Amino acid sequence: MSAEPGPETAGRFDGLRDSEAAPRAVALLGVLVLTWSYVSVLLYVTNVVGGRSRLLVVVLGSLVLATVVGSLVGVRTAVAVTGALLAGGFAVYVLALPQSQIQLLTPDRLLSDTVALLTGLSILRLTGAGVWAMAVAPGPVFLSWYLAVRRRYVGAVVVGGVALGLFVLTGDAGQVTTLVGVAGGAVAVAAATLDRYDAGVAQLDVLTMVLAAMIVLSATVSVVPGAGAAPLLPNRGSPTVEGSLVDAQDRLNVVGSIRLSPQVRFTVESDRPSYWQTAAYDRYTGDGWVRTGNANPYEGRLRGPPGASRTVEQQVTAEGSLSIVPAAWKPVDLQGPIASDAEVTTQGNIRPTAPLRLGNSYRVTSEMPLHTTEQLRRSGTDYPDEIEERYLQLPDSTSDRVRERAAQVAGGEDNAYDKAVAVEEYLESEKRYSLSVPEPSGDIADSFLFEMDAGYCTYYATTMVAMLRAQDVPARLVTGYTTGQQVAEDEYVVRGLDAHAWVQVYFEDVGWVRFDPTPSGPRETAESARLAEARQSGQTGVDVESSEETATPTPTPTPTPETSDGAADESGTSAESSAVAPGGVVTPGDGSIPGVGATTTADGGGSPIPDLPPRRTLVVGLVAVVGLVAGARRAGLTDRAYRALWLRYGGGGETPEDDAVRAYRRLEYLLEREYRPRRTGETPRAYLRSLSRVGLDGEAVRVGEAYERARYGDGVSRAEADDAAAVVTRLVRESTPVVGRLFR
What we know:
Shape: elongated
Number of strands: 18
């Protein structure tokens, strides 16, 4: 017989029955959630650099080992095992490093690297990041789960919290991961407390509501008001192209819609135009880029490209705060006050350790590679080990269809140069330029190739690098600024809207050569329109002396044309710089140029509100639903909703007797709400007869009689049971106000 509300419970529903095992199960689940939160960071790292399946084996092995020895060894022994796991893992990591890196592992270097990790150095920037991830995983996983098996939940949460905290400090644990881990730890501690003091599982409702509210609120506001932390949910503004590229520091995340800033950033005096490079990124994560390796102090002239080069002198003057050193590739010498405080990245770019102020200037000498088309075609593929290791990497999540499309586009070419040109031309012709795009939820190259019709420079450059690497061509993404507006014979004004991303491909005996797959015509049209709008509206900071006389920026140079002596450098200009992709610029519905329109921002730019990525929507939505369910249960709404449905529809039993009993209990609950509850010792027949004096339908008495025969007599027929159920259903439908009061 089905359990139903009856007089024994006086209409009360207690929901889940408390048990001794329930809080412990919840505590174990909380520890597992916390463990998975920091393991997920390591899984992300190994997905990028390789070794994800091996890491899963290591983690599962650690969990099994902890479960097996949980009842066999003491805490001191478990701590010793953890230390051995960490020491062994670190030894494996050191042995896996290149010999040149092992020689640098002095005590001072180890200390400085540890401090760097604790102050924001991403794990993905480490050499051998995948080996490091597998080295550090087993220790905390083993100890945390061992303590949980031993019912030392607080200790388990402390170990897991320290592991997760490390990845928060390195910047690799995102807000969702951190919040889920904190929630898991809090649930584990709360459940352990309930278990210790023999409290009920129902008391977890309040904790669940608080945690859900914390996560949902954190998903809609910044972590610290006014701080740089980005909220999970989108704001009504969009980042500038400059902010998403040049200000990305050591990690570049590909965002959705962006806007153009017309503010002047710096001026350049140079005898040759060029792209003013600021950074290069070697490690592709699928959703962005990471610049690996440490930066070393600038100590004098740097090595130039391996082949022939042209010397280019540049005098750069900051027109505001400037935390970069823009320079033509490849910079080899830096002069000026910032030289004593500058540093050089592993990728060969120079950057200051302190921002330049308005009016500060420096002089930089660059050796721009000289080459001919035939020289690049003849270039071999015997790349140095460092180039192959860093610049052929693709994340494990790279789809087969990306590799197949790369083979379709460039697989027929027999040299790296023609492969690069094929991919460059393919992207220029197949995709349109637009600043208004949704942020992809998966791999950038895959999304841009197969799901997006348009994008801007970051999408073009990322996709080209991924396709070339799929064809075993070393390539990297580079950020900086295009030439800017030429205001004199050798002088250029560079604005925020000139920020750009492009591609460099490595060739033996030449070095890094620039390719730009972004259609230059539509991009320059959008930039010119944005600048014209800013000038028309009287916006300040968009011009310097003499720059107002030139209406359009200088066409961007490309590296492909040959010079008069048969060699080409990165300052050449060709007809390709003015080519317009089919369809031109993608414009919003109002016909305005992307970045210029009715939706304005602080600097006058505008773009539609970016869509929330589906993955984050799912996480935040599920958390909100869990919180709402917990709140409804705490308030009794779930019980009341069940009662209302049970009262109105009843349901069916296995026998006529079951249905007759169910019909009476529905009736009694209805009468309890409308009149009064049945008194202790009062029989159902006496109860119904007492209410007949106030006008109770005589058919209701017949329901009570059927109940008595079903419970205490010789039973009822199917017809009698159905009649009783129909009578109660009619009374419920005629008593709408009564049903309404169920939710009081």
